[in-house]
Design a protein that fits this description.
The chain is an alpha/beta fold. It is 41% helix and 22% strand.
Length: 204
């Protein structure tokens, strides 16, 4: 049995932690500790989608145990599933480009938007198939500079081969060109070329 402590974690961290635990070979039971109903429902939905049996035990208001029991077929997927996915990704490689034009995700509250963007970039970094390129322009350029909460995730993706490009004009506008912490500076022509050649463009 594996116990996953996701208390205090915000979306999508509980789901990602749970999925990694479930993918370990030979594991038959995973117990996930969360502190809110949203995380509980997200973990439960993901586990059920993978064929597991799920029960929930509410210890108290801020501690909920999501008990995941996997049958033999689900438990044996583990590393085999990951290997199979990696092989398929190499065979059917798709040129996915993520285009980020703001330090916030969505419209509405600024602080919430920043939290959502941080969660989005973390979730992207945990994908089994990472994008080929991530483009940052306008306010999005601030995410690759000193002080950004997403630098760790971006540097991890760069090490894994993801191309991180930030608009030079945008860095100049915000006075941040000497504070770039990850990736390289690019220009509008290159941005347009990357977008035009992409098989899929993701805009959060």
């Amino acid at each position: 049995m594996i116990i996953v402590n996701a208390i205090g974690d915000v979306c999508p961290v509980p789901v990602i932690k749970t999925k990694k635990a479930m993918e370990q070979p030979g594991v038959s039971e995973v117990v996930v500790l969360v502190d809110n109903d949203i995380a509980m429902n997200n973990v439960k939905k993901m586990a059920i989608s993978l064929g597991a049996d799920v029960s929930v035990e509410k210890i108290h208001e801020q501690e909920i145990h999501v008990c995941i029991n996997m049958n033999k077929d689900v438990a044996e997927k583990g590393s085999d599933k990951v290997i199979e996915t990696e092989k398929k990704a190499k065979q059917d490689e798709v040129n996915v480009v993520v285009a980020i034009s703001s330090k916030e995700m969505g419209a509405g509250d600024e602080k919430l938007g920043e939290v959502l963007m941080k969660g989005f970039l973390f979730a992207v970094s945990q994908l089994e198939e990472l994008p080929k390129t991530i483009l940052f322009y306008n306010g999005g350029a601030l995410l690759t500079t000193k002080g950004s909460d997403s630098l760790e995730d971006l540097k991890f993706m760069e090490e894994e081969g993801v191309e991180i490009l930030t608009c030079g004009t945008c860095l100049d506008f915000y006075g941040k060109k000497d504070q770039l912490e990850v990736g390289n500076v690019t220009n509008m022509y290159d941005i347009v070329e990357k977008l035009s050649k992409a098989d899929k463009v993701i805009r959060p």
